[in-house]
Amino acid sequence: MSKNVLAHALKTASIEKLKDKRIVLASNSPRRKEILRTIGLEPDIVPSTFQENLPISGYAHQIHEYPVATATHKAIEVYERLVESEPDNAPDLVIAADTVVLTHAPETSSTVSQSVLSSALGPSPQEVLEKPRDKEDHLRMLLDLNGNVCEVVTGVVVVWPVLQSPGYKVQSIDERTLVYFADNPQSLLEAYVENGEGIDRAGGFAIQGLGSVLIRKIEGDYNNVVGFPVASFFKLLEMLVEEEDDFLEV
To answer: What is the largest CA-CA distance in the chain?
Structure first.
C-alpha cells in the first residue's frame, strides 16, 4: 500500500486506483482526518487558505449549495497552490469539505445528492449557522436550536488532474442530516457554552462530545454531523472510477 492508503482499506476499484497516488485533504480538521482513516485513507494534510467568506445572500434560493461552493474554493486553492509549488509532487486527488448547520429544517428524511441537482431546490427560509463568533453568539445559536430540528449539510468536493484546460476536474456531493435537539433547560445550554467545546464547530455543538447531551435523535449519517459523510464520499469515488475515464489517469 502507498503511504496514503492503509493496509486495512477495502480492496475496491477506487481504493486500488488510489494506490501510489498522492491524496491531499484540504483541511486541518482532526475529525475529518480520523473519519477518512476509518476507510483506510491517510491523506497529506494541506489546509486551504481560502477565507470562507462567500456572501450567504448569493445562495438564498439554493442554500445547500453554500457549503459545496466553499468546499470547491478550498479544494481548487490547494490543488493550484501545490501544482505551482510542488510540480514534481503534484496531488492526484484533493479532498475538501465544508459543514454548515441550517436552522428550522423541514422534518423530512436526509438525502445525499449530486450538487448539480441542488439548483432545483426552491427558496429556503433557513438560516446558516457557522462557527459562533463569541460566547454570546454561541448561546444565541443554541437557544434557537433548542427543542427544534436543524439540518447539518456538508459539501464534499474532489479535484483531480486532467489534460484539458484548466488542468483539473471537480466533482461534488452534499449530504444532509437532520438533528433533533431536546428541550433543554437554559442552564444546561449556558454550561455547554462555558465549557467551550462547541465554539469552533458549525452550529456551536459537537455531537461526538459533550454536545450529545443536548440532542434527542438524528436522521441520517452520523459522520456527516461530525464533519465528513464518509459513506457517500466512498460511493462518490466508486462512481468516478466507473463513469470518469480520466479519473486518476494523468
So the answer is: 58
